[in-house]
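Module 6 notes. Inverse folding takes a fixed backbone as the condition and produces residue identities as the prediction. Think of it as a translation problem where the source language is geometry and the target language is the twenty amino acids. Below is one complete input and output pair. Work through it position by position during the lab.
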C-alpha cells in the first residue's frame, strides 16, 4: 500500500503480472524511506514483453481507428476517476507537489489520451493527384514501440508517448524510471479495465542499464521514444541505430530567460521565481536569466524577495511551494554543481546550500551571478533549484548569451515590443520560444529540441509521422 492505495509491483507482460528473481527498493524522497520493493527486470523480461507486443500488434493495428479511439477515451475516463489516487502515489514516489498533481499533471494524463484519440480520427487518408495518377497517403502502424521515461513527471511524460503510439495502432513496452515507477504499474490496470487488448501495453520495471538498455537494443522493437539526459540519449541513439530503429529523443535543456527593460517587470519576476517549480527538476525551465543591464539590479533584488517567500516542505501539504530533490544521489549532484560554481568564482546572491533547517533532500532556491563565461554553471544542466543571472546591453548580446550553450530545448523572452519579440525569437536556437508567457502549448503543436536537446518533433500529426509508417500508394489511371 502506498498512501492508502494498493499498487502492484510486478511487471505487466501480455496481460499478466510477472515476477522477477530480483527486486529493487523504491524510496520516497519525502522522508527517504522505502515504500515498495519492485520487480527488477532485464533482458529476459524485455524479450518476453517484445514477444507479447508482437503477438498483439497485428490485431491492435488492424483494429479500426474509431474503435482504437474509443478505447483511448475509456482509458482517459478511468484516469480521470482515479486522479486522487494517482496523484497521491506519484507525489509519494517522486516528491512532486500534490496540489499540482491533482490540478494539472494527472488531468493532463487523461488529456493526452483524449487528444491523440481525436487526432487519430482527424488524420484520415490524404488523396493527391499528379499528372493523371492518384496518390493515397496512409499512416500504417509501425509495430512495437519502446518507451523510456524520466522520473520528474513519470506518468504524464509516459502517456505523451504512449497515447500516440497506441492511437497509431502500435503495441507498446514501457520502461518506467526506477526512481519513480509506481504510477506506470497502475496505468497497466487502468488500460486493461478500459478494454485495451492484452499485450498492447506492457510494463517492464528495472534499472536503466539493464531493462532500458535491453529494450532499446532489441531487434523486435520498431520505434524507440526516450526522455532523459543528453548523455543517456547518446547511448540510446547508438543502441537503436545498430538496428536502424528510428528514435525520438527529448533530452535536457539549459533554457535562457531573456528579459528586456521594456517588459512588465512584475510579470518577469513572477515568471522567474516560477522557474524553481518542482524544485528545479524541469527540463524546460528558464534557468539562465539574461536581463537588460538597466533593470538588472532591480529584477534580481525583487527576485530575491520572491524566492524568500517560497515555502519548502512536505509536498503533500497545500501550503508547500518546493518539495525535495528526488534522491540522495541527485541531491549530491545538485550540491556538486553549486560547490563547483563557487570554486569557479560565481557568487550566490541567495541560497547556495542545502536547507539545513528542514534537512532531508531539501535544497534552497539558489541564484548565481558573476559566473565566468563558459563555466559549467552557465552551460550544463543542473536539474535542481539553481538559476544564474547575466546582464546584457542590446539585442545582439542578448541573443549571443542565450545561444551560448550546446542545448536548444526552449527559451523565454519578455518584452513590450512585438517587433523585438519577433526578431529575437527568430534568432534563438530553441524548439519552443515562449514570449511573455511560459509552459503554454497546444498538444497539436510540435515539441522537441535543437542541438543536444533532442532529435525529432512530436505532437499532433508529428507524433503520427513518427509512430506510424507513412505510406504512399500511387495508382495509374484505370
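Target side of the pair, the amino acids:
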Amino acid at each position: 500500500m502506498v498512501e492508502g492505495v494498493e499498487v502492484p509491483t510486478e511487471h505487466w507482460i501480455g496481460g499478466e503480472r510477472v515476477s522477477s528473481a530480483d527486486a529493487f527498493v523504491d524510496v520516497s524522497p519525502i522522508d527517504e524511506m522505502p515504500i515498495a520493493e519492485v520487480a527488477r527486470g532485464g533482458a529476459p523480461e524485455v524479450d518476453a514483453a517484445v514477444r507479447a507486443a508482437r503477438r498483439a500488434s497485428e490485431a491492435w493495428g488492424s483494429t479500426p481507428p474509431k474503435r482504437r479511439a474509443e478505447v483511448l477515451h475509456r482509458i482517459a475516463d478511468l484516469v480521470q476517476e482515479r486522479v486522487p489516487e494517482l496523484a497521491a502515489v506519484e507525489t509519494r514516489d517522486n516528491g512532486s507537489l500534490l496540489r499540482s498533481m491533482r490540478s494539472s499533471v494527472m488531468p493532463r494524463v487523461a488529456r493526452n489520451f483524449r487528444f491523440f484519440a481525436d487526432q487519430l480520427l482527424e488524420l484520415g487518408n490524404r488523396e493527391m493527384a499528379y499528372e493523371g495518377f492518384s496518390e493515397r497517403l496512409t499512416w500504417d502502424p509501425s509495430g512495437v514501440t519502446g518507451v523510456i521515461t524520466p522520473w520528474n513527471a513519470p506518468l504524464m511524460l509516459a502517456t505523451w508517448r504512449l497515447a500516440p503510439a497506441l492511437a497509431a495502432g502500435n503495441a507498446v513496452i514501457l520502461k518506467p524510471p526506477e526512481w519513480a515507477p509506481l504510477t506506470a504499474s497502475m496505468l497497466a490496470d487502468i488500460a486493461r479495465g478500459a478494454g485495451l487488448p492484452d499485450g498492447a501495453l506492457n510494463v517492464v520495471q528495472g534499472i536503466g542499464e539493464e531493462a532500458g538498455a535491453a529494450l532499446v537494443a532489441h531487434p523486435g522493437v520498431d520505434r524507440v521514444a526516450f526522455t532523459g539526459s543528453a548523455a543517456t540519449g547518446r547511448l540510446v541513439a547508438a543502441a537503436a541505430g545498430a538496428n536502424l530503429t528510428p528514435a525520438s529523443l527529448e533530452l535536457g535543456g539549459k533554457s535562457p530567460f531573456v528579459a528586456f527593460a521594456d517588459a512588465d517587470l512584475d510579470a518577469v519576476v513572477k515568471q522567474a521565481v516560477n522557474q524553481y517549480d518542482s524544485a528545479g527538476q524541469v527540463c524546460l525551465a528558464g534557468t539562465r536569466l539574461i536581463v537588460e543591464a538597466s533593470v538588472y539590479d532591480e529584477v534580481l533584488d525583487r527576485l530575491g524577495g520572491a524566492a524568500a517567500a517560497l515555502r519548502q516542505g512536505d509536498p503533500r501539504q497545500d501550503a508547500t511551494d518546493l518539495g525535495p530533490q528526488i534522491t540522495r544521489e541527485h541531491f549530491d549532484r545538485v550540491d556538486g554543481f553549486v560547490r563547483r560554481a563557487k570554486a569557479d568564482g560565481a557568487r550566490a546572491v541567495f541560497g547556495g546550500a542545502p536547507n539545513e533547517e528542514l534537512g532531508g533532500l531539501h535544497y534552497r532556491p539558489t541564484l548565481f551571478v558573476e559566473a565566468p563565461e563558459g563555466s559549467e554553471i552557465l552551460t550544463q544542466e543542473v536539474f535542481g533549484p539553481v538559476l544564474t543571472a547575466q546582464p546584457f546591453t542590446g539585442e545582439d548580446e542578448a541573443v549571443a548569451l542565450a545561444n551560448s550553450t550546446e542545448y536548444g530545448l526552449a527559451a523565454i523572452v519578455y518584452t513590450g515590443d512585438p517587433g523585438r519579440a519577433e526578431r529575437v525569437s527568430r534568432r534563438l536556437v530553441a524548439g519552443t520560444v515562449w514570449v511573455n508567457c511560459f509552459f503554454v502549448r497546444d498538444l497539436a503543436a510540435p515539441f522537441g529540441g535543437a542541438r543536444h536537446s533532442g532529435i525529432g518533433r512530436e505532437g499532433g500529426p508529428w507524433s503520427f509521422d513518427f509512430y506510424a509508417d507513412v505510406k504512399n500508394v500511387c495508382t495509374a489511371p484505370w
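Reference fact for the lab report: The chain has two domains: 11-251+453-475, 256-435.
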